[in-house]
Amino acid sequence: MKIAVLAGDGIGPEVTREAVRVLEALRLPGMVLFEGDVGGAAYKRHGHPLPAETLELVRTCDAILFGAVGDPDCDNLERHLRPEQAILGLRKEMGLFANLRPAKLFKGLEDASALRPEVASAIDLLIVRELNGDVYFGEKGMRTLPDGRRQGWDMMAYAEDEVRRIAHVGFKAAMGRARRLCSVDKANVLETSQLWRDVVIEVAREYPEVELSHMYVDNAAMQLVRNPGQFDVVVTGNLFGDILSDQASMCVGSIGLLASASLSQGTLGLYEPIHGSAPDIAGQGKANPLATILSAAMLLRHSLHLDAEASRIEAAVAKALADGVRGGDLGGTMGTAAIGDAVLERLT
Ligand code: GGG
Fold first, then answer.
1. Which residues are involved in binding Mg(2+) (predicted)?
2. 134 assigned ligand-binding residue
3. Is 186 one of the catalytic residues?
4. CA-proximal residue: ligand 1, atom 5 (nearest)
5. Backbone phi and psi for residue 60, each to the nearest 5 degrees, phi listed first
6. Does ligand 1 have an atom closer than 6 angstroms to the CB of 128?
7. Hey, which of 84, 96, 127, 272 would you mutate to test ligand 1's pocket, going by the most ligand atoms within 8 Å of its Cβ?
8. 174 lines ligand 1 (CB under 6 A)
9. Interior CA angle at 107 toward 325 and 299, to 5°?
10. Would you say the CB of residue 37 lies under 6 angstroms from ligand 1?
11. Does one domain contain both 123 and 227?
């Protein structure tokens, strides 16, 4: 069980440290952790945000625990050298196309949600975000128009096989849950979304037990706040999934709580909090490590098939939150290490 730990930038190292402490506390026989450089930290040391050494490391590992990337020192670099290219590069290079982002209200956090408690307490959904296509990977550029204005452009594109494979992930996830799948697109305006919808409908024939619905992304954003309890599994593209999952995080209290798994067709998976590097609070010991700790639990479940151990971590986090453990993001005063300690104390 080889795990690459890529802590990255900003609060990445702080939150990853707590997740590593939790993994180590489980004393799993044969689990070995290897650290690698990624993001702005890797650029500063190796001249590239995703150096060859890191790619070599992840190729020999079963799973990746990832912190966050993003560093204001790198803002003026060419796009291919920016820290964010490391996570996009890893997802593409390793074929990590399916991003699972669960959002559920923990007991005791009803008051922390941006929604009314009775609305928030119904949230138990899974966003399945496509990760290898869309405007993130389409052709892009900057040009000067004949009248002298600069124009930036990013091509939104999906091929049908890319939609088909993520649709299967969505339907399979729904089969293991409440058997409801909502496909989110913008089919009234976008060609990519027309194709997306057609392919999802084709794939649905293989899953007659799953109730399929379709929603435009603008409506989905509104419904997520109005009545989030209606969603079970949401399958959507890269850009829409990125935005909707940040929105979902505030519905359950904080972006510091949402974990994610990025899965490939093979066995390798990458696990990371959905939040970024938060440079404004980096190095101050203020960041909430729970999303990274919960990502470590997803790693145990999806890549190492250690369900019982994953549940132990999730139960410890739930107990800590129910007992009132709160960082600044949830209106409390506890720091990163104290929150990590609170989880460790409750790990049974
Ligand atoms: N832990 C998530 C992270 O570091 N996010 C920074 C980022 O640039 N993410 C791009 C994306 O999620 O698409």
1. 218, 242, 246
2. no
3. yes
4. 276
5. -95, 0
6. no
7. 84
8. no
9. 75
10. no
11. yes
In a domain, 106, yes or no: no
Q: Which residues contact 213 (CB under 8 A, 6 or more apart)?
A: 180, 181, 182, 183
Tell me if 134 is assigned to some domain.
yes
Of 43, 242, 271, 329, the active-site residue reads 242
Query: Does residue 108 fall inside a structural domain?
Result: no
Question: 336-345 vs 290-302: helix axis angle to the nearest 10?
Answer: 50
pLDDT in tens, 256-307: 999 999 999 988 999 999 999 999 999 999 999 999 999 999 999 999 999 9
Residue 281 CB burial class (10 angstroms; 0-12, 13-18, ≥19): middle
pTM of the predicted structure, to 2 decimals: 0.95
Query: In angstroms, how far is CA 192 from the centroid of its own chain?
Result: 23
Residue 62 known to be catalytic: no
Into how many domains does the chain fold?
Answer: 2
Order of strands, edge to edge, in the sheet holding 269-273?
A: 32-35, 2-8, 63-68, 269-273, 259-263, 98-104, 124-130, 233-236, 180-185, 211-216
